[in-house]
Amino acid sequence: MFRFLKGGAGGAVCAKCGGKLQRGEIFLVDGKQICAACYRQRKPGRFCAACGRQDTMYLWDGKQYCNSCYTARIQREQCFLCKNRLLPREENNTWMVEGAVYRFCDSCMRQVREQRPVTLTHLTVLQPERRRPSDGKAEGRPMAEEEKRAVEVEGSRIRMWSTRMNLWLNRPDGRPAVWSFPVELTAREPVITLEDDGIVRRRYTLGVLPGEDLTGWRLRCRLTAVRQEVTGAPVILLEGLAEEPKERGKRSIPYRFEAYVPETAKQAETTRAAMESAPPEGRGLRRKGEDTPENTRLVGICPGCRGSVTFQWLDFSMVDAVPVYSTDGLEVLALPAELAAAAPGDWSAERAGHTFTLRSRFACPGCGRPYFPQQFAPGETFRPGFRHLGHRVIRW
Fold first, then answer.
1. Which of 331, 336, 396 is nearest to 365 (CA)?
2. Would you say the pTM of this structure is higher than 0.90?
3. pLDDT for 126-148, tens place per residue?
């Protein structure tokens, strides 16, 4: 039996190595007290192979690492696109996008140099190549017949079969399944339909600003199927880059869509319920640990009316302010952090014809239901906020 003991060590020594036991690092094994170092040797699987910390573990290269060490290793040792482990000679294949450095295998690096991405969205819509693990040489990526039928595009409708995607999610290499394809846009404010096994599950409206018209544009999409870390349920991530026809101009607008959990998946209800109360990272709208450009348009699905909510993410810590929302949840006020910290819980104020309170939440414009149920504490250093597309941030 293993039991962690909290409290003073006194003059006790480790029963295995004889070293003095330190406060808070005493383990009881078979009735004897041993130090943390000896316990790690006895149970190495419970500790990070890099820093020795006891935490939730992630497997990489046959060893277990904590979240911080695992993130650092995959960023340094795997290709950003195809997720293959980099060979020693490939670790210098780096490319800087939006101030961040990414690493690629030789085959994906050739694509990056040819396309010369200028934004992270340009980079993520590239189709990754695969290579043979035996020799590491680049090879083409012939699509198997099952994969061709897993995702199809018909007009503005994306047809997928989640039951067939399990063939790719259950592969021993553990890599996510990725499909890249164009969608032709035929309306001023297009609606992208996601159909799963013949049933329409999502309708994403590509919100536009007044005067914008996406008719004739093309949406370069990237659909990624992954497994949720905790429940193991498959999750479909979708993002795209809307590009204006070359004869009209060179504008491009990045969109990112709320993740979809297939209805037939195990643990689907649990995963979906957790997503409804999760921040943008938990809904597939942002990537954890990466900056999201403010021009990226995030398209969420309201859990109440199932309508689309198009908004933009903002970092209010850059202006030392706290986002405060109007009573209808449609407007956002940049309240100075000092005022927010001293404000009582029932604080309210009138600005630009709207009433703002600390209890108000960012809400769906269709039914008024809060889209993000939680609110961020005024004292937090990292203070993200949201504004509906076309709405401005009201200053104090």
1. 331
2. no
3. 766 544 444 444 333 444 555 55
